[in-house]
Amino acid sequence: MKVIGAGFGRTGTMTLKAALEELGAGPCYHMVEVLWGDTGRLPLWQAAASGRAVDWRKLFDGFESTVDWPGCTFYEPLMEAFPEAKVLLTVRDPDAWYESAKNSLYATLIAGRNGELIGGTSTPPSPEAFAMISTLIWQGTFHGRFEDRGYAIEMFNRHNEEVTRTVPAERLVVHEITDGWEPLLRMLGIEHPPSDSLPHLNDQASFRAMVGLAARVDRVGETA
Question: Which domains does the chain have, with CATH numbers?
Fold first, then answer.
């Protein structure tokens, strides 16, 4: 493991997944693996979300990096399991982050519970995956209060502050998408970027189209 992503989802993590893979730190584990990838790892994530011990090396076998949930929740035990890995904290304006998460990730939860994910370019995630995500993120990180905007943003800011306080400076890289390649190149000891700009993936519109939210009006959000 070369890179442990500690930033929440909707902070450019899909772009960072692609960028890390282009830089040789892949495959990179991302929430899309839970939803549409190797479902054989789901029991391990269910155990972790429930507070039970897991073998992190087994869970991440075959991967060189991780970003997004569920990995970001467990950045501290991952630091112990992979002591040579850098910790990458992806950040974003808190208000923009909340709007993006509300209209993509959280809207998917609400629609999935009600069987309203229709016409997506990917098959709907399994009920087991939804349950794990709900336990880990919506009940765990946000304590069932994600719809309380102020509280959700407080948890976002608190997490980022805890990461910067906990991770030794020599292991921590803080990255915003507008920073481009340079911090990633320094982190991995690479001189030249593979392209002029970072790949741009998984904006809100493409996410909603992928999961089947494209034409839906959310209960917690605006018209798609």
Answer: 3-211 (3.40.50.300)
